[in-house]
Amino acid sequence: MERRLYRAALEGNVPSLLQLLWEDELVLERSLVGSHSDTPLHIAAMLGHSEFVSKILSLKPELACELDSQRSTPLHLAAAKGYADIVKGLLNTCKEACLVSDKYGRNPLQVAAVKGKVEVLEVLVQVEAEAARIVNKSGETVLHMCVKNNKLESLKVLVGMFGGEDEFIDWKDKDENSALHLAAADGQFETVDFLTTHTRADNHSRNLEGFTALDLLAQSTTGTKEKAIADNQTMSKQTRVSSSSRASKFPSGAYNWKKHFKRQNSWLERMWNSLMVVATLTASMAFQAGLNPPGGVWQDKAGDNSTSVPYTVSIFGHDMPENSNITLRAGNTVMGGSSYGVYFTFLVFNTIGFIASLSIIILLISGLPMRRRLFISVLTVIMWIVVTSMALTYAISIEFLTPLEQYLSFKVISFGILAWTGLMTLLVVSHIIRLIVKALRACIKAVTHRRKRFTV
C-alpha cells in the first residue's frame, strides 16, 4: 500500500489517494514511519501537483513541517521549483517552515532567491520578511547568495523590499565582503551598477584584505570592460523604466560608477608606466656611477704594478689622515684611495638606489597583480627612497670633485640637497604613519562590526 501511495504522489492522482484512504485511514500516518525519507507531500510539492498537495494538507496538515533526508521541508522543494500556488498553500498551513534551514543552511526564501524564482520570492518576503535577514554559517545574507549565483532579478526584488535598510545592504560576511564586494570581484557590472545607483551601498567600505569594491572591480576587469560597463548602464536605465512601481522605494542620487572607475583605472595605468620608466633610468644611472665613480680610476702609465699614497678618511670635507699608506693598483678608484670615507658613503647610497630601482622593475614585470592602488602607493614610496639615494650620491660626488678653494659654493649646494632630502624623508615617514593608522582603523572597525553582528 505504501508503494501505491507514493505512485499516487508521483502522478498527482487524487482519486487514487482517496481510494487508499478508504482502504486504510492511517495510510498517511504510516508514511511517516515508513522506509522512505520523503513524505508523499514532499514528492507532490516537488513535482508541482497542486491539487494533490491541497488534499493532503486538508487531511494531514502536520506533513507541511516534516523534513526529508536533506532537512528540507516541502516548502523548500516547492520554492526551488517556483510553484507559487503550492508555496502559498504550504505557508497557510505551516508558516514556521519559512524559517527552517536545510542541510546547506538555506531557508525556503534563500532557496527561491538563488534559484531565481522571483514570484515565489515575493510571496515569501511578504509572508515572512524576517527570513531574508537570516545569515548562514559564513555570515552571508540572501544578498550575498544572489550575487554568488548571479541572480540579479532576485536581488532587485530584495532591494525593492529592503532598499532603505543600509545595514541589510552593507552587511558583511566573515571575510568582511558585502554583496557589492562580491559583485565587483566577480565582474558583475550590471549588479555593481544596480547596487551603486539604486541603493546607498557603501562603495568605500573595505574588506579584510583592505580592498574596496572599486579595487576588486579593477582586478576582475578584462579588455572588454568599457563596453560591458556602457551596456550595463543602458540596461540599468531600461530596468528602472520598466520597474517604475519600485523606483519610489529607491533613494535618490545615483553614483556615477563608470566615471569613477575610468578615472581610477587611468590613474593606476599612468603610475605603473611612470614608475617603470623612472626605475629603469635610475638603475642605469646607479650602475654607471658604480662602474665609473667620480674621479675615475688610477692609471698605471709608468708600468709599475702599484702606487702607494697616504691613507685619509674624508667625510663631507673633513679629512682625517691615518698613519699608514695603502697600495693602489691600476683600475682602483681614485676616490677610494684618497678619501675612503667619502667613497664608502657614496657606495652605500648608490647601492641602495640601484637595488631599490631593480626591485621596482622586478615587481612591475613579475606578473603579480600589482595594478592596485595599495601596491602602487608602496612602489611610489620605494621610488622616493631611490630618488633620495641618488640625490645624496650626487651631493657626495660634488663634495669630492669641488676644489677646496670653492668650498663655500659646495656648502650651499650641499645644504640645499640635504634640506630636500629631509623633506623627502618626512614625506616617507608621514606615509608610513598614514598606512599604519589606516590599518589600525580597519582592524578596529572589523572588531566592532563583529561584535554588532547578529546571528540567528
UniProtKB/TrEMBL annotation:
Residues 266-398 form the PGG domain. InterPro entries: Ankyrin_rpt, Ankyrin_rpt-contain_sf, PGG_dom. SUPFAM superfamilies: Ankyrin repeat. It is found in: Membrane. Keywords: ANK repeat, Membrane, Repeat, Transmembrane, Transmembrane helix. It comes from the Eukaryota. GO terms for cellular component: plasma membrane. The chain crosses the membrane at residues 271-291, 342-365, 374-397, 417-437. It is a multi-pass membrane protein. It holds the Pfam family Ank. ANK repeats lie at residues 36-57, 70-92, 104-130. Its main location: membrane. PROSITE patterns: ANK_REP_REGION (PS50297), ANK_REPEAT (PS50088). PANTHER family: PGG DOMAIN-CONTAINING PROTEIN, PROTEIN PHOSPHATASE 1 REGULATORY SUBUNIT. This is PGG domain-containing protein. It comes from Punica granatum. The lineage of its organism: Eukaryota, Viridiplantae, Streptophyta, Embryophyta, Tracheophyta.
